Amino acid sequence: MAPSGSCSTDCWRVIYWIPVLFISLIVAWSYYAYVVQLCLETIENMGEKIVYLLVYHVLFVMFVWTYWQTIFTKPMNPLKEFHLSHSDKELFQHEDRRESQQEILRRIAKDLPIYTRTMSGAIRYCDRCLLLKPDRCHHCSACDMCILKMDHHCPWVNNCVGFANYKFFMLFLAYSLLYCLFVAATDLQYFIQFWTNGLPDTQAKFHIMFLFFAASTFSVSLAFLFVYHCWLVCKNRSTLEAFRAPAFQHGPDKNAFSLGTSKNFLQVFGDEKKYWLLPIFSSLGDGCSFPTCLVNADPEQPSTPSAHNPSVKSAGEPHQFPPKPLRESQSRLLSNGQSEGSEDRDTQGTSNPALTIEKET
What we know:
Strand order of the largest sheet: 1-2
Strand content: 5-15%
Shape: elongated
Distance between the termini: 48 Å
Low-confidence stretches: 296-332, 337-361
Number of strands: 8
Number of helices: 10
Mean pLDDT: 83
Number of domains: 2
């Protein structure tokens, strides 16, 4: 039975790569059609030919680079501090009552930067990975693991899009859209000439006409997807959070992680502008904890003593955030006082004193 199960798993792994192979073949053909059939065989003006080839290859390299990074960047998983120890695991599994299990989870969670809950108010726990889920972390059934800040599992990249590669995915959408728009725009006049029989009927006719149809079709779908994810970045939401708001101790709040448009952007792309347009990891934070607009960060107020999580190092000046510390990059997001996007919130945020109690006792 074991060999059969292993064979089935290997077969599915191969099948999962079919969409990636399909996209790769389309891109390879588009390179041949544009460079050879359009630029080298059809365009006669040397200046136009050189400009088209230069711009095309810049977009092509960035498109392939971001696609590669999105596919082969391994999703980040929760740190070992979120996993149950051997003794806690045995204690948890031997408990039959749900209330007792929750007591065990609450005891472990009080030293971790965990604020989100299930819709019923319970600690979020993954019974497959045997760990407490960090905020914005979800279990992917396709990858069979918990993914930090999971957005969605994308079959076109055969990978989970999450904290580790969400910036790469955004850049992939941007450069693939620019690539398709450029190809469609520069191919249009020759497409019209072939369509109206203004050019001789050669082998290039099929490639140029189909290239325009393919580039135009992909441009429309990519434009909708890119605009949607730009909206998600501005709101600081994942695709999963857009469909179901994250729940806290006080209830669901879809704008809890929104710090204002500019800070939301920095959380994904980082605060170093030289890396914004490159598929190099520069996102802020560690993926396990995120600043929220639910708690007023007052640098003048003394910090609350707490048992610090050894996995999360807080560099720089401490700020008032319920006893669980954040990283320096996250602290910078909250250091400028009130968040900029207060008009986007559906809740009163920091003005509600009930929201300041996020840690269960």
